[in-house]
Design brief:
Kelch-typ_b-propeller; Kelch-BTB_domain-containing; 4-stranded antiparallel sheet; mainly beta; 5-stranded antiparallel sheet; Neuraminidase; Kelch_1; 17 strands; kelch repeat
Length: 142
């Protein structure tokens, strides 16, 4: 799946969502099937956004924060259920964020717990980052 011009792998396909068209944030989503070598549209996100984070866990693609209308920062979070082709809104973040990074570690979107639908403040980084990337290796977030 391609989200905001980022390809995210889920199972045997990839996807894309969001971005900007003619000055407006869009909620479009597309899915690429490498076996068929074909892109197809998926259910649009509930909210148009750009500069949002994406993270994958258990067949779900989370779209986190970003910017909405008039480039305003967002707290809203939703996930795409690959099997059901539907976006579901979850608890918003405690603060608005865009251009951030997101990863899952120990079944938690750092630091969102999907089981309790709640957020927890994490330890601040020593240096602020913008449009950073994050990856989990051997139980550590880099």
């Amino acid at each position: 799946m391609l989200l905001n011009d980022v390809v995210v792998g889920v199972g045997t396909s990839s996807a894309q969502t969001g971005g900007k068209r003619a000055g407006e944030c869009v909620s479009d989503g597309e899915r690429y099937d490498p076996l068929e070598k074909k892109w197809s549209f998926v259910q649009p996100m509930r909210r148009g956004r750009q500069n949002h984070c994406l993270a994958v866990n258990g067949g779900k693609i989370y779209a986190i924060g970003g910017q909405g209308k008039c480039a305003s920062a967002l707290r809203e979070v939703e996930f795409y259920d690959v099997d059901r082709n539907v976006w579901i809104e979850v608890a918003p973040m405690m603060q608005k964020r865009y251009g951030a990074a997101a990863v899952f570690l120990d079944n938690r979107l750092y630091v969102y717990n999907p089981e309790s639908n709640s957020w927890t403040a994490g330890v601040p980084m020593k240096e602020k980052r913008f449009q950073a990337e994050a990856v989990v290796i051997d139980g550590y977030i880099y």
